[in-house]
Design brief:
By secondary structure, this protein is an alpha+beta fold. It has one domain: OB fold (Dihydrolipoamide Acetyltransferase, E2P) (Beta Barrel), CATH 2.40.50. Helices cover about 30% and strands about 35% of the residues. The chain has a 5-stranded mixed β-barrel with strand order 1-2-3-5-4. Strand 2 and strand 3 form a beta hairpin.
Length: about 120
C-alpha cells in the first residue's frame, strides 16, 4: 500500500514539473504583419459612434485618462495593441496618433473573435 502511495506521489510530481513545460510549448507565435488603419478611441467609437479629425481632441483626452485605443484596420477589423509582457507598458504609445491614419508593423495574434498586435513601429 505504501508503495502505491509513493508511486502516486512520484507520478504527480512528474506531471506537475512537466505541465509548465507543456504550457510553454503551446505559446502562440504571432506572425509579422503591416496594417494600415486609423487609431480609434474605442469608448467613443462603440458608445457614441464618433471618430475622425473633429473628435481628435476628445480621443486624446480619453486616451490620457487610460481608456483603450485600438487600430481600426482598412480591412474593417479592430486590432487591439498588446504588451510584450504582462504588467509592462505597451511598446509603442498610440496617444499621439488618435484619429490619424497610420501604418503599423508588428506581430499579430488572432483568436476567434479578436485580433491583437504587439506593435514594433507606427507611422502616419
Amino acid at each position: 500500500m505504501l508503495q502505491r502511495i509513493l508511486a502516486g506521489i512520484g507520478t504527480g510530481a512528474v506531471l506537475l514539473l512537466a505541465a509548465p513545460a507543456a504550457a510553454h510549448a503551446q505559446m502562440p507565435q504571432g506572425k509579422d504583419v503591416t496594417i494600415q488603419g486609423t487609431v480609434v478611441d474605442v469608448t467613443c467609437k462603440f458608445m457614441k459612434g464618433v471618430s475622425g479629425s473633429e473628435h481628435r481632441r476628445c480621443g486624446e483626452l480619453c486616451a490620457a485618462a487610460g481608456l483603450p485605443l485600438a487600430i481600426l484596420g482598412d480591412d474593417g477589423k479592430l486590432y487591439f495593441p498588446l504588451g510584450n509582457e504582462a504588467g509592462k507598458p505597451l511598446p509603442v504609445d498610440l496617444k499621439p496618433h488618435v484619429d490619424h491614419k497610420v501604418t503599423v508593423k508588428g506581430k499579430l495574434f488572432e483568436t476567434p473573435g479578436g485580433q491583437g498586435i504587439v506593435i514594433s513601429s507606427v507611422s502616419m
